[in-house]
Amino acid sequence: MSNDTITYIESKQKLFSIDFRELIRYRDLIFLFVKRDLVNSYKQTILGPIWILINPLLSTSVFTVIFGVIAGISTDGVPPFLFYMSGNVLWNFFSANLNKGSGTFLGNARIFGKVYFPRLVMPIANMVFNFINFGLQTLLYVLFVVIFALSGAEVHPNWLIVLTPVLVLQTALLGMGIGLIVSSITTKYRDLNILVNFGISLLMYITPVVYPISEAPLGLGTMLLLNPVAPIVETYRYAFLGCGAFHWVYWLLSLGVTALFVLIGLLIFHKVEKDYIDTV
Description:
Blueprint: H1 20-25, H2 27-41, H3 51-70, H4 80-102, H5 104-107, H6 109-112, H7 121-150, H8 164-185, H9 191-205, H10 220-225, H11 229-241, H12 248-273
Helix pairs in contact: 2-7, 3-4, 4-7, 4-8, 4-9, 4-11, 7-8, 8-11, 8-12, 11-12
């Protein structure tokens, strides 16, 4: 008769018991993944990390020509380049967090199947990586704001700049929260992953990235502000440039929606991670 012992390895965590202390213990792994992404992103490129700064400059220049010069869309009196750069930098930060978050399970299936670590380490590492990119691009953006202001342009930074850390964190969490939901659902329905890029492109055009809310037809502006990304972009732009307005009611609503997406994202992600390639 065999005396072999069979050991079952299973998660002891319940749906509502996400161990954030465990994430802190794995902080070295988070920074290891961030370092890996920084190296891999610009490996075998001539300009290397300089592309972090070149990308927003190129896309902003394209927006300025197409929407500012050709289409002639108003920018509420501020220099078009600054207007488009403000929306572009923040939008790219949001979409990067959403894109990276939505590929957490499918993009890391091999490593998830080989070694155990809290699966939330991966989206958090992605978010830190995106923070670095955004920080460098923001420094470039602030430099342009200062240059235009000193040259006499209609640029009026104001006290709402103090809200910038909150806006940035909110943007990251909103993108990550939606990304976690998408990532969890695509473990069963991979078709959704195909629609993500299309959905992000569509969402950008209902967000005031390339146009001000003031240009929206009567009534449509209110509907656009119900998009949780829109009040963030508008507040960020108003803080640095003084154009548009601070829609504080819609921003508070956006904060609530962000918290809801993060909560739902964490719960669904935690539920899926217990069964997704988690056996040894």
